[in-house]
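Internal tracking record. Fields below are filled automatically when a chain is submitted to the structure queue. Please do not edit lines marked as system-generated. If the sequence contains nonstandard residues, flag them in the REMARKS field before resubmitting.
Queue: standard
Priority: normal
Entity type: single polypeptide chain
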Amino acid sequence: MVTTTAIVRFVEQHIATAFQILRYFVPNAVSFLIGVKIVSERHIELAKHAIGLDYKKPYTRHGKLFYKPYRNHFATFTTDKIWTELAAKGYAEHDEPNEHGTIFRLTNKGLEWLGNELGIKIYGEKR
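SYSTEM-GENERATED OUTPUT FOLLOWS
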């Protein structure tokens, strides 16, 4: 006979693995499952573009995906809604604005967030 305790223990042991699998196949599954949509697909698209992940593909090592950005910048207006939202969450920062706009870049926290959303280890700047 299976007890409730055994079922709870089984679920606790396997829930982390299930979330990792979901995150790999459906990048936003975890956010969707807990009912909180932290950012939109557009946030992710622009963040990927800023680090060149829309052009270059991540590499695989020991069955895991890795990416080392060859760039980390996005030129736009200071009032850009998506980039100001990313900056407010601490995922991005920007230079001083000029007459042409400003340059946003992902912070290490932003690179970690994007990597978690996509199931990829993204290397940040060494400090």
